[in-house]
Design a protein that fits this description.
DUF421, transmembrane, alpha+beta, membrane, 8 helices
């Protein structure tokens, strides 16, 4: 009975380990940190999310620790963690819905970028995406390309991977929808009937 009286004397916030104000602070902190990380990844380019070297993994661990402390406050609680996770998944659900719209998707994600067309490498596009030529050569090797004469185009995708489009079969222009630099691909490689299927 004594224990029950003590429990009844506790406030709702004390039972959960956080107050309503603290829960609101966690929600705001989680949204702010998630938004900041999205903006940071947007600025650094899509390739950053694809290559995970040793120092990248170390940075991710540190970022996770900093973000966790920033969202949960000085003294983390179980209830605080639940609030943060619910907020995080809610934000992801909203962003997933926004990505269904082309405008929303273009705001959230980096667009696909043509970094190579034929034998021409677009160094400015590589620089903007924070990609080195060595990484481009590695992508060509992994695609089984033995000579750059085999290449029609190379596209850096929003997820940081490379798509290598070979010569020999004309490229359907629809595949390049919303791709930055698609106009740099020679018409001879495109399956557009206006130019003829010359690839």
């Amino acid at each position: 009975m004594v224990i029950m009286k003590e429990i009844n004397a506790l406030t709702f916030g004390e039972l959960l380990g956080i107050t309503g104000f603290q829960a609101l602070a966690i929600v705001v902190g989680t949204i702010a940190m998630y938004t900041f990380l999205l903006v940071l990844l947007r600025v650094l380019g899509q390739r950053v999310s694809a290559r995970l070297s040793t120092y990248d993994m170390a940075a991710i661990i540190i970022i996770g620790a900093i973000a966790g402390r920033a969202t949960l406050g000085h003294t983390p609680t179980l209830a605080g963690g639940v609030v943060a996770l619910l907020t995080l998944f809610s934000v992801r659900a909203v962003l997933g819905f926004l990505r269904l719209n082309p405008l929303g998707n273009s705001i959230i994600n980096n667009p696909p970028i043509v970094v190579m067309a034929g034998t021409t490498i677009f160094t400015e596009a590589l620089r903007e995406a924070h990609v080195s030529q060595d990484e481009l050569w590695m992508a060509l090797r992994q695609a089984g390309v033995r000579n750059d004469d085999e290449v029609a185009a190379v596209v850096l995708e929003p997820n940081g991977s490379f798509s290598v489009l070979r010569r020999g079969v004309p490229i359907d222009p629809r595949i390049l929808a919303h791709t930055r630099g698609q106009d740099l691909i020679p018409p001879a490689f495109l399956g557009d009937k206006r130019f003829g299927d010359l690839a």
